[in-house]
Amino acid sequence: MAIGMESRLAVLLLATLLATTRTVTSSESSQYCDAGNGYGEPQCGFSSKGLPPPPPPKILIKGGTVVNAHGAEAADVYVEDGIIVAVEPHIKRVGDDVTILDATGKYVMPGGIDPHTHLDVDSTGNKAVDDFFSGQAAALAGGTTMHIDFVKPSNGSLITGIEAYKKKAHKSCIDYGFHMVIHKWDEVVSREMEVAVNEKGINSFKFFMAYKGYQMVNDEVLLQGLKKCKSLGALAMVHAENGDAVFEGQNRMIELGITGPEGHALSRPPVLEGEATARAVRLAGFVNTPLYVVHVMSIDAMEEIAKARWSGQRVIGEPLVSGLVLDDSKLWDPDFNTAAKYVMSPPIRSAEHGKALQAALLTGILQLVGTDHCAFNSTQKALGVDDFRKIPNGVNGIEERMHLVWDTMVESGQISVSDYVRITSTECARIFNIYPRKGAILAGSDADIIILNPNSSFEISARNHHSRSDTNIYEGRRGKGKVEVTIAGGRIAWMDGQLKVTRGSGKYIEMPPFGYLFGGMDKEDARYLSSLRAPVKRQRSCA
Ligand code: URP
Ligand code: ZN
Ligand code: ZN
């Protein structure tokens, strides 16, 4: 069919209405670049006349299989003004100014949403090498069109922290949202959490149960935070490792003379992740608020989540691509630089953990895959050459996640293509309450789209990746299924192995509170109160 003028106008009107009702802050940067080959700043021109980024083109994707989390169909996709206007079979060209993309034999899917990144982060004095431009350019080359980054408080203030991150993100070329880290508890934090949710578009807060003496919170703070999250309709997230025991484990390794990267893994075994996950799950259950466990790296943690979900608790588990596809053997590599690049927390575990995490994803115990992209180069990692405790924690993944999950889970036959869309995009959009604007190929959704060729292959190397890191933890890895085209906000950003990124075209996506995980909680709370059979009215007997 040809897209009729009326239906196009109707969808565009709907999209305009959605855009005006959505609380979105559009980036005002006037810088743009046609990078051609690579994203590197030298090739990127800034508009000398202060022009805004050029408007997104009209695009018609023909002949592909459109995949959503709810199913797949043969359909064409028409995009205008950065919005999907129609998803129907046999859409006819609507004008000469339409870019046609042939997707015959390929999958047309929602762009990936990475729920867990640390771009431009300062971690104990070490600045991650990827900022909001290089990290996002890498994301685009790997089929990810949105990510949610962790904002740290600045000078003790959540709001100052959010504003600082908004500045860092000015150069964005894909859409992004924020989670907020909570380090401590007082009246100011409590009030600022309200502002973050009600005025700043944040609907999730992360509590670190590890990193003693730095970001770690104790159970008292965690409990206060859980209560506050519940009252605001915000999702509580935990880094679940027992920080006191990790500290003890680190001392034990040093006393044993184990100072290399293997000491990192040995000092924080799975049992400490399991213990903290169990504790967080139980405290969230006690408060009766939903919980999101970030970077689930072990069977121990996954089983706690499984138990909680079986009992009806609202718990989400996020494994990382590193935890799914790698094992800890490299931490024992005799070459320090090789071993150190795998240091992250919780640590990458032995192979049976990765296999179990994959199985948990396919059975629905775990829900979505993140990266925890937090890249440091080998010079930074070498800070810990004599002491693993000084190795900056973090690995790459924002560019590799979509390919590796496809190869590991779909190509191997473990999950369907629709499940792939669910765990790499849709579930994240649903959890953080931005679906179906994100995470779907539907009329009215944002035009964040990838075209994946299942018959093409990929190979990963630091030689040609787009992160600024000089290493890649997936070096040399090959697989099937290649993202050939990435469209972000209606712009073709990755095609024919070339990046074309527009600085400042990425938008901050505000995420409203009370997502689906909160549905029905009021009734649950009421049932709990009525189950108490208290206070018991007693007559005071006079002695
Ligand atoms: O090692 C990691 N995961 N670094 C990033 C910070 C965190 O704990 O998420
Ligand atoms: Zn963490
Ligand atoms: Zn992280």
Which characteristics define this entry?
543 residues, alpha/beta, 7-stranded parallel β-sheet, 22 strands, globular, disordered N terminus, binds N-(aminocarbonyl)-beta-alanine, binds zinc ion
Task: Write up this protein.
The chain is α/β, with parallel strands linked by helices and 543 residues long. It is 32% helix and 21% strand. The protein has 16 helices and 22 strands. The protein has a 7-stranded mixed sheet. A 7-stranded parallel sheet has the order 9-12-13-14-15-16-17. Strand 13, helix 4 and strand 14 form a beta-alpha-beta unit. Helix 4 runs parallel beside helix 5, helix 5 packs across helix 8 and helix 6 crosses helix 7. The N terminus is likely disordered. The protein binds N-(aminocarbonyl)-beta-alanine and zinc ion (2 copies). One zinc ion (ZN) binds next to strand 16.
Supply Rg. 23 Å
Q: Tell me the distance between the termini.
A: 90 Å
Broad shape? globular
Bound molecules: N-(aminocarbonyl)-beta-alanine, zinc ion
Strand content: 15-25%
* Number of strand elements: 22
The amount of helix comes to: 25-40%
Overall pLDDT score:
92
Strand line-up across the major sheet:
4-3-8-18-19-20-21
- Total helices: the number is 16
Please identify the structural class as seen in this structure: alpha/beta
Spans of at least 5 consecutive residues with low confidence: 1-49
